[in-house]
Design goal:
By secondary structure, this protein is α+β, with helices and mostly antiparallel strands. 55% of the residues lie in helices and 13% in strands. The protein has two domains: 117 residues, no CATH class; 78 residues, no CATH class. Helix 1 crosses helix 8. It is elongated. The protein starts with a helix and ends in an 8-residue tail after the last helix.
Length: 209
């Protein structure tokens, strides 16, 4: 193969990768946005054309997970480091300090102030029997291997969308062989890198006032 032919072949391949990436990033951007809760309780969705599909795929619920047993014990040890001025006992599920305790208000105030040093996602629930600690986790309706490659993750999208941008047209034209498979795998990983670069280089979308 002549050098000029090889050069143009490489140039064409890079151009095709760029076109595929622009297409995938375009799909991702077209699904951008969030759902805002209006004062009347109804949803106000992003007006991006593909957002309804993204909203359907990213349906989720929030799960409250409490610290218990040895995990609470480990947390309490860290809390004692942050609040050395207080002495308190704890059970398998909570710190045994109630509103009747003379230092309750001060303890809760400093606890809320200093727990972010331990974990910014750590939350405290005040109960009649004591203080319980928990974290919130998002549980999605659809598996990440379905929702992320479709339009939630630009890097992941290189796997699914390359079916239409590479595998179907290339196999149709050249047939299925070892070279096509090798280049297809390389194409997917290169696209992942290009999509990541474009997505992370993109300036943040300004929010409405």
């Amino acid at each position: 193969m002549e050098a000029s032919t090889l050069f143009y072949a490489v140039l064409a391949a890079l151009g095709y990768i760029a076109l595929q990436s622009f297409f995938m990033i375009g799909v991702w951007i077209s699904a951008h946005g969030d759902t805002e809760k209006k004062p009347d309780g109804k949803d106000y969705d992003s007006e991006m054309i593909l957002f309804p599909i993204k909203k359907f795929l990213t349906q989720s619920t929030k799960e409250k997970v409490f610290y218990e047993g040895k995990y609470l014990q480990q947390l309490v040890e860290r809390i004692k480091v942050q609040l050395p001025e207080f002495e308190f006992s704890f059970s398998e599920k909570e710190i045994l300090m109630t509103r009747e305790h003379p230092n309750y208000v001060q303890f809760v105030h400093l606890l809320n102030e200093r727990t972010p040093r331990i974990d910014p996602n750590l939350q405290v629930e005040l109960r009649d029997t004591g203080l319980r600690f928990y974290k919130m986790y998002v549980q999605y309706r659809f598996n990440k291997y379905l929702r992320k490659p479709i339009m939630q993750c630009p890097v992941c999208m290189s796997s699914v969308w390359s079916i239409f941008s590479y595998w179907i047209p290339v196999i149709y034209v050249f047939g299925l062989n070892a070279t096509v498979i090798y280049l297809g795998v390389a194409n997917s990983f290169i696209l992942a890198a290009v999509n990541w670069w474009i997505a992370t280089s993109r300036p943040p979308v300004p929010h409405k006032a």
